[in-house]
Automatic annotation (TrEMBL):
This is 3'-phosphate/5'-hydroxy nucleic acid ligase. It comes from Streptomyces triticagri. It comes from the Bacteria. The active site is at 326 (gmp-histidine intermediate). Its EC number is 6.5.1.8. It catalyses: a 3'-end 3'-phospho-ribonucleotide-RNA + a 5'-end dephospho-ribonucleoside-RNA + GTP = a ribonucleotidyl-ribonucleotide-RNA + GMP + diphosphate. InterPro entries: RtcB (IPR001233), RtcB-like (IPR052915), RtcB-like_sf (IPR036025). The lineage of its organism: Bacteria, Bacillati, Actinomycetota, Actinomycetes, Kitasatosporales.
């Protein structure tokens, strides 16, 4: 599958999705993005759908500007996965105890740890830079300074919505651990603060959509946003690393006899900004619901809580700005899913998975998402499949 080019005001819109399948609201958002004076390119992933502020599944390349709403409020949200030495034969028939132990170790929803997690006690955690990272908190926006204690206690916690922790198996029977989370409340508050600042700037007053307000290079507002953005992206990376360490500890304890070992962790952001160079220009590339898929980059494209997920290797397609989709992508809103489906439907669609099956997570039912296989099939020129995973345990907030 290659892309389809749709005309845009300043740049063409390269779509790895069938334009006829994209909802009108998302198409309007994409057309609006293509009017921005600073835009140099726009790529659309096969999991595209309408999003708050900007389209989910969009890759926006700009010169000397960045749009905070196009990153979204969960700065640095992304995935981590690791292959273990366990096989499906090592797993017990009843996985409820394993799920319970994971939920005890990793706070979910709005929860947090009673005390900050000491990363030094986690096996293999990359502690270099940890102190310097927290030292930089003094330099973030004053508007969130009062949240420091909460931020330290939420480090290593899951959140809610589409965030999850999973135990999966691949086609060969190997067991994988996988999780999805971001920068928690501190990232949300930083994002909302800067989106508010951007919307008041004079150069943004004539935009077709106030949500597309940008910061421009060589201004104090841009410098402040970049500082806080990159700090929040690092928070998200550490958050996933701590959760993965806690998850590995649970697995070690539950399978002591197996003396579990782990391969290197695969980790990728999918709501973030990166400084990259294309067509001889330095650009700020915003991926909202997209992963980097440079040549050889390992990435993770999850489905829903009852379907498969994929470990992929990037092919380095510069037409997509070295990007690929971040997941299956929603095909209906959360409210629509709650209206259409029941807890009984959820139970049916998650048969064989140890997970919540109550009305509180019906909005995450597999039927609310696009078929992951179709999403993968539309980006064969962006990524190569390394492994297909199927969850047997799914923990949600």
């Amino acid at each position: 599958m290659s892309y389809v080019e749709v005309p845009g005001a300043k740049v063409p819109i390269r779509m790895w999705a069938d334009p006829a399948s994209v909802e009108d609201g998302a198409l309007r958002q994409l057309q609006n993005v293509a009017t921005l004076p600073w835009i140099k390119g726009l790529a659309v992933m096969p999991d595209v759908h309408y999003g708050k502020g900007a389209t989910v599944g969009s890759v926006i390349a700009m010169r000397d500007a960045v749009c905070p709403a196009a990153v979204g409020v969960d700065i640095g949200c992304g995935m981590s996965a690791v292959k273990t030495s366990l096989t499906a034969n090592d797993l017990p028939g009843d996985l409820s105890r394993l799920r319970s132990k994971i939920e005890q170790a990793i706070p979910v929803g709005r929860g947090m740890h009673d005390d900050p997690v000491d990363p030094g006690r986690l096996h293999g955690f990359p502690t270099a830079g940890w102190d310097a990272f927290w030292g930089r908190f003094d330099g973030v926006a004053d508007a969130v300074k009062f949240r420091q204690e909460r931020a330290t206690k939420q480090m290593g916690s899951l959140g809610s919505g589409n965030h999850f922790v999973e135990v999966c198996t691949d086609a060969s029977g190997s067991v994988w651990l996988m999780l999805h989370s971001g920068s928690r409340n501190i990232g949300k508050e930083l994002a909302e603060h800067h989106i508010g600042v951007a919307q008041k700037l004079p150069h943004n007053q004539g935009l077709v959509d106030r949500d597309l307000a940008v910061f421009v290079a060589d201004t104090p507002q841009m410098a402040a946003y970049r500082n806080d953005l990159f700090w929040a992206q690092e928070y998200a990376k550490y958050n996933r690393a701590i959760m993965m360490g806690l998850l590995q500890d649970v697995v070690r304890r539950e399978f002591k006899k197996a003396k579990v070992t782990f391969e290197p962790v695969i980790s990728c952001h999918h709501n973030y900004v990166a400084e990259e160079r294309y067509e001889g220009m330095d650009m700020l590339v915003t991926r909202k619901g997209a992963i980097r898929a440079g040549s050889g980059d390992l990435g993770i494209i999850p489905g829903s809580m009852g379907t498969g997920s994929y470990i992929v290797k990037g092919l380095g397609n510069e037409k997509s700005f070295n990007s690929a989709s971040h997941g299956a992508g929603r095909r209906m809103s959360r409210n629509a899913a709650k209206r259409r489906y029941s807890a009984k439907d959820l139970e049916e669609q998650t048969r064989g998975v140890e997970c919540r099956k109550d009305s509180g997570v019906v909005d995450e039912i597999p039927g609310a998402y696009k078929p992951i296989e179709q999403v993968i099939d539309r980006q064969t020129d962006l990524v190569q499949v390394v492994a297909k995973l199927k969850q047997v345990v799914c923990v949600k907030g």
